[in-house]
Design brief:
This is DNA primase. One of its GO terms (biological process) is DNA replication, synthesis of primer. Pfam families: DnaB_bind, DnaG_DnaB_bind, DNAG_N, Toprim_2, Zn_ribbon_DnaG. It is a single chain. Helix 11 crosses helix 12, helix 13 packs across helix 14 and helix 19 runs parallel beside helix 21. The chain is α+β, with helices and mostly antiparallel strands and 598 residues long. The chain has five domains: 86 residues, DNA Primase, Chain A (Alpha-Beta Complex); 131 residues, DNA primase DNAg catalytic core, N-terminal domain (Alpha-Beta Complex), CATH 3.90.980.10; 117 residues, Dna Topoisomerase Vi A Subunit, Chain: A, domain 2, CATH 3.40.1360; 58 residues, Pheromone ER-1, CATH 1.20.50; 142 residues, no CATH class. The strands form four sheets. It has a five-stranded antiparallel beta sheet with strand order 1-2-3-4-5. 50% of the residues lie in helices and 12% in strands. The radius of gyration is 31 Å and the shape is globular.
Length: 598
């Protein structure tokens, strides 16, 4: 867990205008900055960034959040990765309670990472320059129907023949970062007497692999002739793990949002060719099976994922592995489908032969995950025999166990039950599914707290906008909140405690990030505050103080009305009466002093 104090310090150090400005062209407009929203299509800017609130808000689609939230939504990163990226940008190191690495070693690792990133970018620039002077490589790409524009968009290049061309790029060809990043290979004789270094990539079309920040983390190289291997990838490095990255995701992010889905293909050339042919929302796994991490990354970008596989046996095997990777990530508000092309086609050849409209239809008709799963477990078995039905259930068991309890899992259970002459309850019991859906009696949903209104709502708004004002609230104010009723008092006390815990560094951005992690209760209020001009904190401080005095007066009045029926002795009643009236007089004087002209 990253300590909240670190998150607070980080959000107070970064400038959201700088963070958003790396990805969105912003122009000053009054107190805020304006730009075209990166989360939906628009022609006139409705996307605002507030340097005082350290918050962004789109009046068109309602997107809003802090610097952390922007990186999560824009790049598809997880919370921890977004925090680490922001921290690195301001020279902070994210603490980790399980991290036993000494600070000096951690700093060395960061320096190593920066050196590798720099080396890979320099190599990418070199390969791109070489492509312009390699007629054989240019002819190959033109023969595949690619233009110079699309090659430039993906940063494609060419590694020429020769064993040490990178020596002209790096004055220190012996640098450790070159071998650590996979750009060169060190070969040592068996007796260790002679070490020879040479370039890993030679005579290959080069596809740079970028992470979600756009940094080059590795390469894929394709031969021009029939040499082997056809594709050569960078080795696994601290920057590049094939099971975590997707080729083309950085380039496809906006197209995925525009299309409403992502198309997952099997190779580099599929991605580039589809972008050329009008399908820029395509990505590819990197010569490895689809993993659960791949699926997580994709579902951060869109609610609709379509896997495209060749119709041959290899494509079917790859589809089965993708299905297994998807199951732990399946939820009722996400859609995952599988597209199988005819055996003689890959996406590139299919579109060129049959046209974009035909491919669009194939995408539209792609098989839902539920249908594919049931087909996989039943296709090879005779469902007319008890043994065949039992075998189908046997194959389905681990797949269904991998899924979280959900409406979709229940639908698949019902489908399997129908095919195998069972009941859904029997399937769930036999498979020992966690939290059975078909047989569990669910308690009615607990009613949420009533929406805040009037004085309570205004207090909540001000405390969310200016959390430091909570530091001025004492225990007597928290007790007086009970005049609002139990639910409202509980909500106010929780918000005050959260705001007070942030201390003097509390801000709207920091508190909203905390509230967002806790649930959706404050989402609408945060969006309203983000969309309005920032309120005057001094005026709000005066209003809060007056409101608290009013609440305390109401609490004292209620107690006074009930005092004589409280069961206290006459002496106790008399003593408490004097205390209450004295407190009322004090509050009245404070209110009069606050309202007096200055």
């Amino acid at each position: 867990m990253i300590p909240q104090s670190f998150i607070t310090d980080l959000l107070n150090r970064v400038d959201i205008v700088d963070v958003v400005g790396r990805y969105v062209q912003l122009k000053k407009g009054g107190a805020n900055y304006m730009g075209l929203c990166p989360f939906h299509n628009e022609k006139s800017p409705s996307f605002t960034v507030s340097p005082t609130k350290q918050f962004y808000h789109c009046f068109g689609c309602g997107a809003h959040g802090t610097s952390i939230g922007f990186l999560i939504e824009y790049s598809g990163q997880g919370f921890v990765d977004a925090v680490k990226d922001l921290a690195q940008s301001v020279g902070m190191v994210v603490p980790d309670s399980d991290d036993k690495i000494p600070p000096a070693q951690r700093a060395a690792q960061q320096a190593q990472s920066l050196a590798m990133t720099d080396a890979l970018q320099q190599a990418c620039d070199y390969y791109r320059g070489q492509l312009r002077h390699a007629p054989n490589a240019v002819a190959y790409l033109k023969g595949r129907g690619l233009t110079g524009e699309i090659a430039a968009r993906f940063g494609m290049g060419y590694a020429p023949s020769g064993w040490d061309n990178l020596r002209s790029v790096f004055p220190d060809y012996g640098a450790l970062a070159l071998v650590e990043s996979g750009l060169v290979i060190d070969r040592v004789d068996e007796d260790g007497s002679n070490k020879k270094r040479y370039d890993r990539f030679r005579e290959r079309i080069m596809f740079p692999i970028r992470n979600t920040k756009g940094q080059v983390i590795g390469f894929g190289g394709r031969v021009l002739d029939g040499g082997e291997p056809k594709y050569l990838n960078s080795p696994e490095t601290p920057l590049f793990q094939k099971g975590l990255e997707l080729y083309g995701l950085f380039e496809a992010r906006q197209a995925i949002r525009d299309a409403g889905y992502v198309l997952v293909t099997e190779g580099y050339m599929d991605v580039v060719a589809l972008a050329q042919l009008g399908f820029p929302q395509a990505v590819a796994t990197l010569g490895t099976a689809c993993t659960s991490t791949h699926v997580q990354k994709l579902l951060r970008q869109t609610d609709n994922v379509i896997f495209s596989f060749d119709g041959d046996k290899a494509g079917r095997r790859a589809a089965r592995r993708a299905l297994e990777a998807c199951l732990p990530q399946v939820s009722d508000n996400k859609t995952i489908r599988f597209l199988f092309l005819p055996q003689e086609h890959d996406p590139d050849s299919f579109v060129r032969e049959r046209g974009a409209e035909a491919f669009e239809q194939e995408i539209h008709d792609a098989m839902p995950l539920s249908q594919f799963l049931l087909r996989e477990v039943t296709a090879e078995h005779d469902l007319d025999s008890p043994e065949g039905r039992a075998r189908a259930q046997f194959e389905a068991k681990p797949l269904l166990q991998a899924m979280a309890p959900s409406a979709l899992r229940l639908q698949i259970v019902r489908g399997l039950a129908s095919l195998t002459q069972s009941t859904p309850a029997e399937i769930e019991s036999l498979f020992e599914l966690s939290k059975p859906v078909a047989v569990a009696r669910k308690a009615p949903p607990r009613q949420g707290r009533p929406e805040p209104v009037g004085l309570e709502k205004q207090m909540l708004r001000i405390l969310v906008a200016h959390p430091t004002l909570a530091l001025g609230l004492d225990e007597a104010a928290l007790v007086a909140f009970n005049t609002f009723g139990e639910d409202a008092a509980d909500r106010l006390c929780q918000l005050v405690a959260t705001a007070q815990a942030l201390g003097a560094n509390g801000s709207f951005a920091v508190l909203s990030e905390l509230l967002k992690e806790a649930g959706t209760e404050y989402d609408a209020m945060i969006a309203e505050i983000a969309s309005e001009p920032e309120s005057d904190i001094d005026a709000d401080r005066i209003w809060i103080a007056s409101a608290v005095r009013q609440i305390k007066m109401n609490a004292l009045k209620m107690e006074l009305n009930q005092l004589f029926s409280s069961g206290l002795t006459p002496d106790q009643v008399s003593a408490r009466y004097r205390e209450i009236t004295a407190q009322q007089d004090l509050l009245a004087r404070e209110e009069a002093a606050a309202m007096a002209p200055r």
